[in-house]
Amino acid sequence: xxxxxxxxxxxxxxPAALHTVVIGVLNFTARIHRWAHDGEESRELIxxxxxxxxxxxxxxxxxxxxxxxxxxxxGDSALTHAIDVRRANGATFTAADTEPLREALxxxxxxxxxxxxxxxxxxxxxxxxxxxxxxxxxxTVSEGLMxxxxxxxxxxADDLGPLVEGYMAxxxxxxxxxxMRRAVRMQVAANQPHPIDQAIPVAxxxxxxxxxxxxxxxxxxxxxxxxxxxxxxIRGLLTWASISTTIAPELVHLRGYAAKSGRDLPSALSxxxxxxxxxxxxxxxxxxxxxxxxxxxWRGAMECLDLVLLKMLGHHGNYVHRRHLVPYTDGDxxxxxxxxxxxxxxxxxxxxxxx
Length: 355
Prior knowledge:
The structure is a single chain. The chain is elongated. It has nine helices and twelve strands. Helix 4 packs antiparallel against helix 5 (196-213). It starts with a strand and ends in a 20-residue tail after the last strand. By secondary structure, it is α+β, with helices and mostly antiparallel strands. The protein has helices at residues 61-67, 99-113, 160-170, 174-190, 196-213, 230-240, 252-259, 265-277, 291-312; strands spanning 2-3, 6-7, 10-13, 20-26, 35-38, 41-50, 53-59, 79-87, 118-125, 134-137, 318-319, 334-335. The strands form three sheets. The chain has an eight-stranded antiparallel sheet.
């Protein structure tokens, strides 16, 4: 039964005294170089230990293709993985105990995948039961099977557990829960560059949202409160995250655009965004950004947004940058630019008035 095209949530059985919860995963297509052998078949296996939880994410695509249930060239959705959740100490738990974990998994897997990953049909089992004792007919929003650019590398499976733990450490109150939901959803939405002139403002909105709350750094020139611009806020955010405000050499068209007016990266990105949102009023007064310039601006904004979110989640591994102009090769990664002693203090800083 559905209401306005959405599945009504139905719950059956007893959600207490569970030993294991199994969750279906829709459309997680990020490549993973971790394998477990199951008889004559190899499957992806991602092990994540997050606080008191022992998590195993097992791939199903090989099995589905072998049985003919799903083939990559047919259909647009598949149950690609299953997640097994247990207490590390073997203790029982309730379905409600897993809700913060499921929230973190949904957002971190989407962030790694570059598109929304669905979590569906959680089923709970008792310690000695081979049949579920609790089932919830429910599914998060998801996007179809697709391959998108992402910071996540096929060799980075070990990074997922710490990222889930970092998300849970941040989302401990309503303010930060809402903030992280919005920021990750903006990042995933902006990662669809069709049309690209829509993706750039969304990416910049994500950066400005995070700049509004995360440890602002004073601009290089003292400004009155009403004169602090979005570029100033984003510049402070990048400085906090140890991200260079110099435009990368690969972004040739953005560098050329910035050189005309002495802009740095935050100012150039804001300039492109402003021109897309506020087009020229008179023909010939100011040109629309070219396609090449928009592509460079999108790549630059997305790399900044990737890095800021990874910094906030306490990531200290490598990442795939956004400046690849040739086909990407697994392992072609960079170290994050910040030093490593642990995740930042999640206490929000007081907002600063922006123009």
